[in-house]
Structures are given as C-alpha cells and as structure tokens.
Amino acid sequence: MAKQSTRAVALPSIIDLDAIDAIRDQLAEALDEGAVLVDAGGVERVSTNALLLLVSAAETARRNHFDFGIATPSAAMLAAIERLGLGAQFSGMMRQ
Question: Regarding beta strands 34-39 and 5-10, do their DSSP bridges make them parallel or antiparallel, or are they unpaired?
Fold first, then answer.
C-alpha cells in the first residue's frame, strides 16, 4: 500500500514536448508514493500537452484518494490555462 506523504515536483521554466517525458516520469513516481504538490511558480511557457498531463495526473491522484495541488502557478501558466478554456479542470488544484 502506498504511503500518504506529500511529494513536491518542481516544473521547469519551459514545459514543451522535450520536457514532458521527464515530467510525466516524475509525476508517476510521486503519485506512487501519495499526495503531490507541483511547484509551478517558475513556468514561463507551457504546452497544451503538458497541461493535459497535469489534468491526467490530478485524476490519477483523485482515483487513488491522494491530494494533488499546484502551488503558486505563474502568470504564464494561468494565462495558458485560461486561453485553452481549462479553468474548470484546474480550479480545484490551485494553491495560491
């Protein structure tokens, strides 16, 4: 059975297709252990696929009864979420 510890995952400044595999692996490993808090304060650019990856990770956490949050999302990340109409999907994840 997985532990209930909270694991921090820091996002890089640019989250594009080159970075997404490493982020996916970090999130998967963290979700195996329990709750996850994603540090998004340094994000300058984020791809649509990366945002969908975060939505998927949050759903995995929910199914496993773990907390999943995004701490201090940057203005660039918030703008991308809004521009893509994903505000509802991210609303429960944001930790200001």
Answer: parallel
